[in-house]
Every structure is written in structure tokens, then in C-alpha cells.
Amino acid sequence: MEEHPTRLTSSEIATLWSSVQNNSMAVCVFKYFIENVDDEEIKSVIEYALHTSKDNLSLSEKLLKEDKQPIPVGFKDEDVNPNAPRLYSDTYYLYYIKNMAKVGISVYGVALATSAKSSVRDFLSKAVQSSINLYNKTSNVLLSKGLFVRPPYISTTNEIDFIDQKNYKGGLLNIKRRPVNVIEITHVYANVETNLVGQVLLTGFTQVAIRKEVRKYCNKGKDIATKHVKLFSNILTDDEIPVPMPSDLTVLNSQIAPFSDKLIMFHTALLIQSSTSNYATAAAASLRTDIVTTYVRLTTEVTGYANDGVNIMIDKSWLEEPPQVISKNNLSNQ
Length: 334
What we know:
Ferritin
């Protein structure tokens, strides 16, 4: 069926504009990783991630150009030094890519559901599938090397039942609270893992960032992520549920920057966006009041941290302005 020709919608412009920025950053990151990896299986995963990011970047730019939209600057060769010494372990690369693949599945999936133009939907459908493939490739390598850390195993009741008491939700204080259910465990553990990945990434950024304020900002983010890992872990250990942790997420001693401070700040902002989204989803799915309150409180902390980062990026002229509506008042006054 032939499609009626039409311009990109605001949602489609936003999707493609963000895709250029995010994928141009990812290309820089994977170019550095691929020059600092020893294991051949892990290298093949990074190569696939790099190839996928380049394809997504090229297609996003093409679709914007076809609609005569401006192309964001994003990130270029000057934002990465592939020859900088190694900063992270091979194992960390796998956990980083696994986390980014999960983000891709979610982001592209939501974007697909807000798009109408067939060319954009085709791009997003392929991007979702590529993210799924990347997640599976990464998971398979983690499994083959005995590195895949599964969520906790638990013993559950053998009966189907309905909640008939409001005290199931509990109160703000941990007084006679019920044990966590499997849905709450799923989200709590997922947030342990994502914060751990962020903590390690920011530890490296703290070592290599050139500007003092960027190093200080990354160090604060590392401390926040460390605190959140502990808080979420405590929710599980309070019910005697073990918290599996990845091993060998080593940060080496290099202080030579592989990335520009601009890229470091942008990447940190992406981590914050992901955390905010994860916490909102987890709060909506949780039925224990104290857990919901924890998510709300931590979201407030992360939002404040994000605002500090935006101010740094504005001060340094690193924050690109997204496309916006033309002011009719300005036009009428010209």
C-alpha cells in the first residue's frame, strides 16, 4: 500500500534527533572499547555493538535530511581517544553493553509506538531487533564464561490467592511488613545491577575527566550510585534474599582521558534518564509503601543531581538545544 507523503511529526523528529546524539556517543565509546579488549569473544560483541550504532546513526541522519531537518552535532572523532590506555575490564564491557542493550530495547520500543511514518517505523523496528540481538549476544557470552549473574532464586508459595487486606501495602515504617514479592524483587535487583554498572563507569570518569568540576560531578554520581546499590540490596537482605553481584568489574589506574568532558557529561545525563525511568516503572509496579517511598525519594535525589549536570553543560556550551516550536510572538514582532 502506497503511503501518503507527509512530513515528520514532532515525535518522529525527537526520536531521530535523540538517536543521532545517542548513537554518535555510542560509536565513540565502542571505538575506545574495541582498542582495549583482549578476549576475542568479547571483542566480537563490541564489534557488533559498534556496527549497530553506526547503522542507527546513519539511518537517523538520512531520515532527518530527507525531511530537511537540521542534524545535531552529537559526538565526533575529537570526542574520543581510542589510543588512551585501558580503563575498564573485559568483563565490565559485557555488563555495560548488556545494560545499554536493555535501554535500547525500551527506548526504541516506546519510540516505535509513537511513530506513524513507515520509514521511521521500519528504522525503529530494526533498531529494536538489533538491540534484542545485542542483548542476546552479550548474554550468551556471559553465560558461556560463567559470568552471567542471575537475579535471586527464592522459594514461593504453591497457592494462588487474592489480596484481601490493605495492610499488604504496609506503612512507611518497617513494622510487621510482609516479605517482598517476586515483582518487587525483579525491579529492586534490576536497579542494583544498573546502579552498579553506573558506579563503575563513573569511577573511571572521575579518574580521567580533565576539568575539576566534571571530576567532582562524576565523583558525586559515583557516591549516589554506591548508596543506591546499598539501599536496594538492603531491601532484599532484610528478607534474607541473597544479592548476587558481578565480579571483575575492575577500574584500572589510567588517568589519561579516552573521552572528552562533553561526552562524559552527556553519558552521565543518559544514565540519569535511565535511572529516573527505571525508578518510576518500579514504583508503579511495587505494592509495599516503604519501597514505593524509597523510589520516590531516590528519584528526587537523582533529579537534583541531573539539574546540577545540566547547569555545567550549559555553562560550557555543551548542551544542544532540541528542535522546538517557532514562537509566533517573535514572528509577529519582526
